[in-house]
Amino acid sequence: MDRRAKDQWQTAVCDVTGFTLLEMIFVLFLMVALLGLVIPRITFGDNLSTVGRRLVGTIRALQGMATLAQKPVHLYIDMDHGTYWPMVLEGKEEKVPLDAAWSTPIPLPESVRITEFTAAQGTKTNGRADLWLYPSGRIDPVTIHLADGAANILAIAVEPVTGSIRVSDQRIEPLKPPPIPDRVKPYLQPLPLGGAPVPAGLRP
Question: Of 133, 124, 129, nearest to 97 (Cα)?
Fold first, then answer.
């Protein structure tokens, strides 16, 4: 077999057996999503850092679920009972995810509790809190504080712009919304009966 024929044969074999970059990325993405589904259910211990990593893993797994299914995912957290669970928004109804791993709420260890949950709806220290994850990969900004029986704290914060998740063993102050410029405030007021509000500088 001459060199030219050998090169043609190798090219043909590569074309048949090789994987495209897009296929490899898709497989890797599926593997990460599957690991994200398994990791939140694995219990390594009841220490605060482990619970924090598990909660971060849950958020990332649900982010992947929303992206793959192209449906918003609603994460509920019951601060009084120390449990959390996701629901998938299909049309106007919320349904339990098809994966059996999410069929029952995930409990927090008795030694760890969520002390504060700050999202767009405000700050909660008890009751039920919730977080939205969107098909685009975006996550609503949220700051979660956990504590254990020894008064150690762990803070988890989702950045509003990048979607990155920051974890700290110190308190993270929730981001305040940017101030509204004075020239914009008149447009945010309720509409009068006669039509749109008129800025103060343009009033007769």
Answer: 133
Quote the tokens at residue 13: 């074999």
Which comes out higher in pLDDT, residue 54 or 12?
54
Domain 14-175 is found in CATH 3.40.50.2000: no
What is the value of pTM for the model shown?
0.64
Q: Is there a contact between 143 and 160 (Cβ–Cβ < 8 Å)?
A: no
Tell me how long the chain is.
Answer: 204
Query: E strands within 56-163?
Result: 73-78, 83-90, 93-95, 106-107, 112-119, 122-124, 128-133, 142-148, 153-158
Locate the domains of the chain by residue range. Answer: 14-175
- Determine the Cα–Cα distance for residues 172 and 168; give it in Å rounded to an integer: 7
